[in-house]
Amino acid sequence: MSISASPIRNVSGHIIGASKIARDITARKLAEAALREGEQRTRAILDGAVDAIVTIDEFGLIESANRATERLFGYPVSELIGKNVKVLMPEPFADNHDQYLQNYRRSAKPRIIGIGREVTGLHRNGNTFPIHLSVGEVQLEGRRVFTGFVHDLTDRRELERQIIEATGAEQRRIGQDLHDGLCQDLVGIAMQADHALRQLQNSAARDAEDTVRGIAVSVRQAATDTRELSHGLHPIDIHEGGLPIALEALAAKTSLSFNVRCVFRRDGDWEVRDDMTATHLYRIAQEAIGNAIKHGKAKQIIISLSCSKVRIALSVQDNGVGLPQSAGAVAGNGAPPGIGLQTMRYRAHMVGGAFDVHSKGRNTMVRCSINKPAAPPRRGSAARSRRASVSVRLPTPSLASQE
């Protein structure tokens, strides 16, 4: 209840009594409690968001910000309230922002509102970083309020840079292989052909026959080298057995090239018939094997491809020393991940999945599973939309028991 009291005075002004009014304020209290609960729920949702969310008035002054804004820009929320939002922008964007808002108030022609674009953010310590900014506008109590959604692009930019560097290195390797291998073979073939021509011109038919036979051998070898090089660029042919055949060949080549025991096991007959998905899975297995040999010093590797009623799973298990500490960020402890793990995570994302890693001590397992479609998709069909998940964890039992 809400109670108010007023004095009652006589004609002389003396208080002779009091009047009281009592009001039932249950509805008001319920409304206030609902409002507080709604505000708390909204604040909890905003503070739980991964991206920074900032609201400003039409003059650019910050009215609210969530916790992600603190993590991203380094300012406490309490310090940001009332400041111009341009403190979060480097030059020349900071100087231009007030003019932009003024032009928008006058002309209502947006440059970023409702569109979104990649821009640059400014941390409290003076460092700049790439962000994606999208801005929405709402009318509240007769005034305009703008809400900015800020997504940090730092990790994506770093991954793109590393992928570009890795791609450039691979292109240089392929160019060197072509120069040192195929080109030299073709030069040798040309010299043999010239020699055979001279022999024919000198009527040395028997010697010319041997030379031409050598040319045929060289041409076949050059064709074999070219085929192997092209297979490295595009390792899977759906029409020639697809992923299982490619993984079996990968296991055999790994055993021969690195003097390790690498075997391929298959459980189930269903195949991945989308070439893009199959290629990404093959590359994940290839990268996992490379990490196991180079970093894990593994001597035994098992590649498995299995199929259940709803899932297709690819796993690579080794008996090495485990993942290095540089893999920690993928596991969530904050250390920077290596390019190999980032590449596998990127490939998992390309088929709609996620990537994480956990490893302690010896033995590591890389596992990638994909939702099985209702029917085998046709080549180039919508199979690319299937979802996948990737995990890396310690195997049980240990491979040591199988050695």
Question: Could you please describe the fold and organization of this structure?
Answer:
The chain is α+β, with helices and mostly antiparallel strands. The protein folds into four domains: 41 residues, no CATH class; 104 residues, PAS domain (Beta-Lactamase, 2-Layer Sandwich), CATH 3.30.450.20; 75 residues; 168 residues, Heat Shock Protein 90 (2-Layer Sandwich). Strands 4-3-7-6-5 form a five-stranded antiparallel sheet. Strands 8-9-10-11-12 form a five-stranded mixed sheet. Helix 8 links the parallel strand 8 and strand 9. The N and C termini lie far apart (80 Å). The C terminus is likely disordered.
Short descriptors:
alpha+beta; 5-stranded antiparallel sheet; 403 residues; 4 domains; 5-stranded mixed sheet; Beta-Lactamase; single chain; 10 helices
Give the low-confidence spans.
Answer: 326-336, 375-403
Please list the strands of the largest sheet in the order they lie side by side: 4-3-7-6-5
- Taken from the alpha-carbon principal axes, the silhouette is elongated
CATH topology category name of the largest domain? Heat Shock Protein 90
Protein structure class: alpha+beta
Total helical elements: 10
**Mean of residue pLDDT values:** 76
Main sheet specs = 5 strands, antiparallel
CATH architecture of the largest domain: 2-Layer Sandwich
